Amino acid sequence: MCLAIPGKIKSIELQHNGLVRMAKVSFGGITKEASLEMLPDAKIDDYVLVHVGVAISKVNEEEAKKTFKYLEEIGELGELEDVEDYLPEKDEQ
């Protein structure tokens, strides 16, 4: 199964001689790079769905947290182990 994981954009920079917009995206404490080429309007603090290193769509914070919680429940977070700060509070569920 292919999954897109929600994360929050922490920084944006141009790479490859200014031709490619790349972001540092936080996934519950783990930060990875993702291309923003499909989302030219994405900005810092936006939540995005990332699939194989490419941000494919923007989502709101509530949707990102719901999705992340679901992925945790089904065991699909892999190396993203430190997710407690990213998940909704227990009483919000």
Automatic annotation (TrEMBL):
Pfam families: HupF_HypC (PF01455). It comes from the Bacteria. InterPro entries: Hydgase_assmbl_chp_CS (IPR019812), Hydrogenase_HupF/HypC (IPR001109). Signal peptide: none annotated. GO terms for molecular function: carbon dioxide binding; iron ion binding. GO terms for biological process: protein maturation. PROSITE patterns: HUPF_HYPC. SUPFAM superfamilies: HupF/HypC-like (SSF159127). Belongs to the HupF/HypC family. This is HypC/HybG/HupF family hydrogenase formation chaperone. It comes from Xanthomarina gelatinilytica.
